[in-house]
Specification:
The chain is mainly α and 194 residues long. It has a single domain, classed as Four Helix Bundle (Hemerythrin (Met), subunit A) (Up-down Bundle). It is built from 7 helices and no strands. The protein has helices at 8-17, 24-37, 43-50, 59-80, 97-117, 128-143, 153-177. The longest helix is centred in the last third of the chain and has 25 residues, at 153-177. The radius of gyration is 18 Å and the shape is globular. The relative contact order is 0.16.
Length: 194
Amino acid sequence: MPQTMPDYHTLTNALTRLDTEVTPSEVHGTLAGLLCAHTGAGADVWQQALWPNLPSDDLLAAEAREVFQQVHEATRRQLNDPTCDFEMLLPDDDAGLDIRVHALGDWCQGFLLGLSLGGVKDFAPLPEDAREIANDMLEISRAGSSYDLEGSEEDENAYAELVEYLRVGVLLINEELQPTQAAPITVDTDATLH
């Protein structure tokens, strides 16, 4: 049975128990970038990159590892799903817009780190569309909290459009770096049309 993605609060709690300063959005972005660059990367590679000193005999660390494993499996499944159901792990809409925008910047920063961990050190070899998206992520990650947000409907719509643009962009980058190995379409030449 496929793993379901733990929600933002579950991942937040796991990270809080470890007393880490990495945000849930950055953690998920790092994983998504790593899997886009290297689909075979196991959860251990991702965890070692983010938490090199995570104790192996600690109960809280073991519980966190279980959550991380669920996030890893769900993210891998989403990135490889032909229905494109990939979702970025971000705060819910009930969080303030400023919090969500900051988390989106963290997610982008993590994604770029994950690409780098997976071996993508330069955007130049990427096709133009994928390169543009990666550069946009770089700009978003640099912006930090410099946005002047009022929380208006216009701001909410712009945020939603940006999240969708990035979500589709991640799928595009994933497809460019890890082309789908779909079965070829076959035509039944013996079929009779009536």
